[in-house]
Amino acid sequence: MTISVHQKGKQYLLLTPLGQKHQIELNHFSPEYLSEHQLISNVAEGRGKVYFFEANNLTCVLRHYFRGGLAAKLSRDNFAFSSVENSRCYQELTMLNLLTENSLNVPKAVGARVVRSAFSYQADIITQAIPNCRELHELLRCEPIANDQWQNIGAQIRKMHDLQVCHDDLNVKNVLINNKQDVFLIDFDKCAINQNKGWKQANLDRFLRSINKQQKKYSDYYFTNENWQALLAGYKGVNNKTT
Asked: What family does the entry list (predicted)?
């Protein structure tokens, strides 16, 4: 899938065919513009604000790129610039397109913006919103999840791993489940193809640690070892409908 790049001064507009179809423009990357035109339907809080908005009959999600960890103390949202193709947003659009074309449940890529200065850049990305969904983390705070659903989660992770895609931040908050019980994986910033061996188990271990970390924070958190075994069964392609 081709990503078109349009330059206007120091700004670059990156569009997938979906973004072109719905006429996404540079203005759509401005929260001020979206607010002024009453396009915002919801705002979510994370490392930064995430804006849900409507644009030409498409429900979109706008996210700004921020640094994490120790690097954030040096620069909150500036990244070294080498080329548009090497920017984090271009790489994420490319990854989402790859996963979508291979029938994974991920957000569909819409477009991105790169704002360049002399040696650095800032970036934003727009994806299509996934309707009627909740974080796995939110669900586990409210109720148990059936084991066949855990198998579905494992199966989605396995499909991603079979493409040699390593999710750099696979955690309980980056799994969504919609009202049809479909499982979606989100947030593919800094994710990459990895042809090495051994990382897949480490990726699963990372996901388990994220669940255990949240479970320690809350007295009510509906997760058991049986659930994890069901996830592993789904990952291995074992069909077991025990709930």
From this structure: Belongs to the protein kinase superfamily. KdkA/RfaP family.
Q: Which residue has the tokens 């895609």?
A: 165
- Is 169 annotated in the active site? yes
Residue from 130, 134, 156, 132 nearest 145 by CA: 134
pTM here is 0.92
Compute φ and ψ for 52, nearest 5 degrees.
Answer: -100, 130
Nearest to 109 by CA among 122, 121, 124, 120: 124
Catalytic residue among 169, 182, 187, 205: 169
Centre a 10 Å sphere on the Cβ of residue 37 and count the other Cβ atoms it contains: 14
Other beta carbons within 10 angstroms of residue 80's beta carbon come to 9
Q: pLDDT tens for residues 106-139?
A: 999 999 999 999 899 999 999 999 999 999 999 9
For residue 59, give the 3-state DSSP assignment.
strand
